[in-house]
Specification:
Substrate binds at residue 337. Keywords: Oxidoreductase. It comes from Labedella endophytica. The protein is an alpha/beta fold. The chain has three domains: 2-40 and 212-274 and 411-447, FAD/NAD(P)-binding domain, CATH 3.50.50.60; 43-61 and 76-81 and 202-207 and 290-383, Polyamine Oxidase, Chain A, domain 2; 102-192, Guanine Nucleotide Dissociation Inhibitor, domain 1. The chain has 16 helices and 22 strands. The protein has helices spanning 12-23, 63-71, 106-126, 137-141, 145-152, 156-171, 180-189, 193-197, 199-202, 213-222, 276-282, 301-304, 340-347, 351-366, 399-403, 429-447, and strands spanning 2-8, 28-31, 43-46, 49-52, 57-58, 76-78, 84-88, 94-97, 205-207, 226-227, 232-238, 241-246, 249-258, 269-271, 285-288, 290-297, 307-312, 320-323, 332-339, 375-380, 390-395, 414-416. The strands form five sheets. Strands 1, 2, 10, 11, 12, 13, 14 and 22 form an eight-stranded mixed sheet that branches. A seven-stranded mixed sheet has the order 8-7-17-18-19-16-20. α1 packs parallel to α16 (429-447) and α3 crosses α6 (156-171). The longest helix is centred in the first third of the chain and has 21 residues, at 106-126. The radius of gyration is 22 Å and the shape is globular. The two termini are 21 Å apart.
């Protein structure tokens, strides 16, 4: 097969790039290793329950995603958030609250407010586009997120809670495993650190039928240009073009888009090998670890108790949980997250023991009724061969300032496109779409 552009990966970024390139008059072929499209977006019906196993939320700042959803004619609805949220402290004590900040002692609240204001200022100053170019970049990249917080305050609970918004909730790595600069990029990509604190903002709406409908609908419009079950094993390249060797299919093209997360680049044999700069860079990025827990109940019983379903604690195995009830569903669904070291501990347990521990953690928020779901399912992204972790790749200490500027630098005819290298919308579907658009436009300019 001979086309203008071959795209490796049928996630939101690759399919967006393919759609945009075709609209510009170029022929495309999309090669996908899995037997489905969507990448880190996946919706399945399990025991009669519709569950979004991957990414799912749409926030107001995600304009590229919102535009795509509207263009595709998909329906959105608001996440349920009426009533009180709950917070469990280190002593296991539960407190109901409203608003954004957790119910903590007055001194701790002041520290949290001070840290949030400081981080908002840094985020605005450094920004998401070129954080590595800021005068403080090397300094912030040489210290871990956890160590940076320790230097700012002696209040342990304030540190634990502020750390949660980046470590457990977003990068899904321990606070010692990534830099303060990486944390600031995460906040900047969402508009501010305050946006990450505000669950009603960052987890605003859902797509009826699941967010995977975005890539599914894009793929349907591309038709037979999308090839499933076709992992690319070898990519031969020169300044004249590429030849992609996939299972059962060989495609020659003038350009290639590698639209998979950076941890999967090594699954492709590049001939000739990539330049040393790229090879080194790719060794300094990795995905985190999270278990996404789905618990479906006969009714959303927490609502009767005046609870929104929103729950937080850096001290529980399930560090955050939400009402995830589907549109027009009489049953109630809770979704919870277990990340980084806590996920390690849970995954080391037999399945039934892990389920018991996780449900006990949900019960710490919602009461004993949470112990008896009618459907229970765990999404373990790290166990998926063509994912390998969650939610997106981040650099180790010093990596962002050292390599960040080169993440998207083309290698001859090869371009890179995924949410992992986005500025705005980093590690979200919005970022994947933004990168797909940008990459397509860059390639189209070279083919004109």
């Amino acid at each position: 097969m001979d086309v203008d552009v071959v795209i490796i990966g049928a996630g939101a970024s690759g399919l967006t790039a393919a759609t945009r390139l075709r609209a510009a008059g170029h022929s495309v072929a999309v090669l996908e290793a899995r037997d489905r499209v969507g990448g880190r977006l996946r919706t399945e019906t399990i025991e009669g329950a519709l569950l979004e196993l991957g990414g799912q939320w749409v926030s107001p700042d995600q304009t590229a995603l919102i535009e795509t959803v509207e263009e595709l004619g998909l329906e959105t609805y608001s996440r349920y958030r009426e009533g009180d949220s709950v917070y469990v402290n280190a002593a296991g004590e539960l407190t109901r609250f409203t608003g954004e900040l957790f119910p903590v002692a007055a001194d701790t609240q002041k520290e949290m407010e001070r840290l949030i204001a400081m981080l908002d200022e840094l985020t605005a100053e450094i920004g998401p586009t070129e954080p590595w170019a800021h005068p403080k970049a090397a300094e912030l990249d040489a210290v871990s997120w956890g160590e940076w917080l320790e230097k700012q305050t002696d209040d342990v609970e304030a540190r634990d809670n502020i750390a949660l918004f980046i470590a457990e909730a977003m990068l899904t790595k321990p606070s010692h495993a990534f830099s303060a600069l990486q944390a600031i990029l995460m906040a900047a990509s969402a508009g501010s650190f305050s946006h990450l604190v505000d669950a009603d903002y960052i987890l605003d709406k859902r797509v009826a039928g699941g967010l995977q409908l975005v890539p599914i609908t894009l793929a349907e419009k591309l038709g037979d240009a999308v090839h499933l079950g076709a992992p690319v094993r070898r990519l031969e390249w020169s300044e004249d073009g590429v030849t992609a060797h996939a299972d059962g299919l060989t495609v020659t093209a003038r350009r290639a888009v590698v639209a998979v997360p950076p941890n999967l680049y090594g699954r492709i044999s590049f001939e000739p090998p990539l330049p040393f700069r790229q090879q080194q860079m790719h060794q300094h990025v990795s995905l985190g670890l999270v278990i996404k827990v789905h618990a479906v109940y006969e009714t959303p019983f927490w609502r009767e108790a005046g609870l929104s379903g929103t729950a937080f604690s850096p001290y529980q195995p399930v560090h955050e949980a939400y009402d995830n009830t589907n549109l027009d569903d009489e049953r109630g669904t809770l979704v919870g997250f277990v990340s980084d070291l806590k996920a390690d501990a849970m995954l080391a347990l037999p399945a039934e023991e892990r389920k018991r521990r996780i449900l006990e953690s949900l019960a710490a928020y919602y009461g004993p009724q949470a112990l008896e779901p009618v459907v229970y399912y765990e999404s373990d992204w790290a166990a998926e061969e063509w994912t390998g972790g969650a939610y997106a790749a981040s650099f180790d200490l010093g990596g962002l300032s050292r390599y960040g500027a080169d993440q998207r630098t083309p290698v001859g005819p090869i371009y890179w496109s995924c949410s992992d290298v986005a500025a705005e919308g980093y590690q979200h579907v919005d970022g994947a779409i933004r990168m797909g658009r940008l990459t397509a436009d860059e390639i189209a300019a070279t083919l004109a």
